Structures are given as C-alpha cells and as structure tokens.
Amino acid sequence: MPDGNRRVVVVGDSVAGVTALRELRALGHTGPVALIAADPDGCYPRPPLSKKALVDAAGDPEGWSLADLEVDVTRSAAVGLDSERRIVHTEGGHSVHYDALVLATGARARRLAPEREGEFVVRTMRDATALRERLSAASSVAVIGAGFLGLEVAGAAHRRGLPVTVVDTEPPLMRMLGPFLSEAVAARLRAASVDVVRATSPAVPSGDPIEGITVDGVDIRADVVVSCVGEVPNCEWLSGTALADPRGIAVDERCATSVPDVFAAGDVTHRRGADGTRGRNPFWSHAVAQAKVAAAGALGLEPRCAPHDDYFWTDILGAPVKIVGPLPLVGEPTRIAGSLEDASAVLEWDHEDGRRTVVAFGAKKAVGWLRRRAADAE
Ligand SMILES: Cc1cc2nc3c(=O)[nH]c(=O)nc-3n(C[C@H](O)[C@H](O)[C@H](O)COP(=O)(O)OP(=O)(O)OC[C@H]3O[C@@H](n4cnc5c(N)ncnc54)[C@H](O)[C@@H]3O)c2cc1C
C-alpha cells in the first residue's frame, strides 16, 4: 500500500501530467496530490489541434476534468526547484512542498524566427486558434517541415481549400516511415495538388513581418507561414539543478531522474536505457506509458506497465495512419494487403531482430488488432 501521507506533486497538465495524476489514484494513493500547471486554457489533448481545430472551432479539443481526483491545483508556471528542501517555486510566488515529484512539463514548438512577427506554430490551443483565424483570411499557406505535424497542418489547410506548399530537406515522413511509405505519402500529396518542395538546405521564413519563405535562395510568397520543425523540451526552469539538459530530463527505465524522489514523463524526457540506448520519443502513447511508470515510482510501487509504447497515429490528408512497432522503417514491407493508392492498406515489416511493425494506412483497423499482429511476431 502507498504511504497515505506522501505528498506527490505533478508539474505540467497535459497527457503525461494528467495520466500521472490518474495513475496515482488508480494505484490506491489516498494522500495529498498537487498539480502545478502553466497553460491558461487548462488540460486538453493536443492531437486534435492539428487535425480538426485548424479546420473549424467545433474541432477544438475538449478539456479534461480533474474533479474526481481531489487534486490541489496551482495555475502558475513552475520557475524553480529546490531539491534539497523539496520545494517547487512558481511564477505566482507559491512554494509547493513535495515528498515525491513528477515532472511533465513537455515541450514547446521550435521556432525559426522567434524575433519576427508572423511565424505560426501549433503546440497549444492558443497557437491553433491564432492560426485558424489567420487561415480564414489567407489565400496561400507555406509549411516548413514534412514530418507528421507539418503534413497534418497542410491537410487542414488543404481541407479549407487553400493552396499549400510544404518544404523540407527530406521527402515527407522519411525519417519515421522510411522510403516505401514516404513515397506513398508523397503520391497522396501529389494527387491532392499539395506542392511538396525538396530543398537542399533548410528553408527559412522571409520578411518582417513574415511574408513567405526562402528556399535555396528563392523566395516563395505565402500569406501564412507555419513552422513544424520539432520541439524544445521545457526544462530551462530547472536550471541550477542536475536536471536541466537541452536534450530533455534524463530518465531511466523507472522514469527516475538523477535527483532522489524526482521522476519525469512525456515529451520533456530524454531516455537513458540500461542497455545504453538513448533518445526522445515525443509521442502520445509513450507519454502515457512513462507517466504511469513515473506515478508508480513516486509512490515507491512496482509499475503496472513498461515505460514505452510504440503505438503512433497520424492523419495524411484525411487518411488515418496507425502504426504499432519499431520505427524508422527500412526497405520494402514484408507483406501488403489492400491498396495504398486507395488508402486502404495494411503493411507489415518483419525486422531482423524478430520484432514486427504493422501499419494501417487508411485501412480501418482497431489498435488492439494492430498490437496483436505486431506481438504475433515475437
Ligand atoms: C498539434 C499536435 C498534434 C499531435 N498529434 C499526435 C498524434 O496524432 N499522435 C501522437 O502519438 N502524438 C501526437 N502529438 C504528440 C503528443 O501530443 C505529445 O507527445 C504529448 O502531448 C506529450 O505530452 P506531455 O504531457 O509530455 O507534454 P505537453 O503536451 O507538451 O504538455 C506539457 C504541459 O506542461 C505545461 N508546462 C510547461 N512548462 C511548465 C512549467 N514551467 N510549469 C507548469 N507547467 C508547465 C504546459 O503548459 C503543458 O500543458 C501531437 C502533438 C501536437 C503538438
């Protein structure tokens, strides 16, 4: 049984923070739980921001309620950690004591021209609202970055009937999905007349205020420029502690940090595996898995799941794409069923290490089915 007097504080109220709060209660913790959170719009999921909210305000994500969790909420950014005295300081002047701490401050969108007017990003509700309003008055859109976020933003602009140019130094989704699926994605974009430009050097926003992008020395005018070029972990507020690292807060398999009784989960983390593997997995299911493990750690209990989950989903111009298994994908698939052209295919890659990646490309397949197919290989 968890120690009922243990005061657990969670910092950050997106999917990692909220999952950690829910897991604390699910594990039987009846003691005090506090949340420190910075977003003025409260707790909400981000995936709908780039898929639905840019098309229509009716697509704004619904906020999560914490009412059933008996959480003491401080709505103010954490600005400092005193790990000796076990206190988190907030912008509003609060000093919040903890016995165990879960850091879930996520990441923010990386900007290419932060000092200039007119660069759009999509990370928060406010970002999405501002971009949606701007799209209403626009007649052309340029997206820098052909990763999953850039393609979702391009898809939303395309759905609004706007001409879209997407620029990257690599083919669409190449780094995650490899050449075979990247070509399928590129074909889908071409068929919809989304202009995909392959640059030899990184594109940059041009003008101040921004009025387009410069690609390999050539200016392309666009009413709206959206940068989808990755994210920066929010850990500067931990400066002066062992946890501030530009790569993210380093965590082990228990989601423990190098500071006693401090755990971390989600996009703010940087994994350092016992096997020497390192890296970030800034995706939803991974944040959920880590948050559950971090919550168990904060209570001194065994976790109920592994600290990783390789289910990922996105949307390519209205075709839902769901993936279970290791990425990136290399070479041709081992099996294909259905039609990629019609966006109704299931593809499988059997990897040399015995694992399998299963991809539903537009095909309607439940996540449970994909997980079972992927697990069948092991
Ligand atoms: C537009 C968009 C679409 C996405 N779509 C998908 C998808 O389809 N599939 C998928 O797998 N993943 C998707 N992702 C990724 C997924 O949403 C993230 O992996 C997930 O949100 C990470 O959750 P998190 O709680 O770790 O961090 P975040 O979501 O970044 O949340 C961190 C929270 O901490 C708060 N915070 C930050 N600093 C402080 C501070 N100092 N004090 C207090 N609070 C603080 C922030 O306000 C924020 O609420 C998408 C991401 C975006 C932005």
Query: How many DSSP helices?
Result: 7
- Derived from helix and strand composition plus strand pairing, the structural class reads alpha/beta
- What summary fits the major beta sheet? 5 strands, parallel
Mean pLDDT: 96
Strand order of the largest sheet: 3-2-1-7-19
Percent helix, as a range, is: 10-25%
Radius of gyration equals 21 Å
Small molecules held by this entry: flavin-adenine dinucleotide
What's the architecture of the largest domain in CATH terms?
A: 3-Layer(bba) Sandwich
Number of domain modules:
3
CATH topology of the largest domain: FAD/NAD(P)-binding domain
Measured between the Cα atoms of the first and last residue, the distance is: 34 Å
The geometry reads as globular
**What's the CATH superfamily of the largest domain, by name?**
FAD/NAD(P)-binding domain
Q: Which range does the strand content fall in?
A: 25-35%
Cofactor: FAD
Keywords: FAD, Flavoprotein, Oxidoreductase
Domain FAD/NAD(P)-binding: 7-291
Protein name: FAD-dependent oxidoreductase
Summary?
Its cofactor is FAD. This protein is α/β, with parallel strands linked by helices.
Describe the protein's topology:
Layout: E1 8-11, H1 15-26, E2 33-37, H2 47-51, E3 72-75, E4 78-82, E5 87-90, E6 95-97, E7 100-103, E8 107-109, E9 119-120, H3 125-136, E10 141-144, H4 148-159, E11 164-168, H5 174-191, E12 195-198, E13 204-206, E14 212-215, E15 218-221, E16 224-227, E17 231-233, E18 249-251, E19 262-264, E20 269-272, E21 278-279, H6 284-298, E22 311-316, E23 319-324, E24 335-339, E25 344-350, E26 356-361, H7 367-376
Parallel strand pairs: 1-2, 1-7, 2-3, 7-19, 9-16, 10-11, 10-16, 11-12, 18-20
Antiparallel strand pairs: 4-5, 5-6, 8-17, 13-14, 14-15, 20-21, 22-23, 23-26, 24-25, 25-26
Helix pairs in contact: 1-6
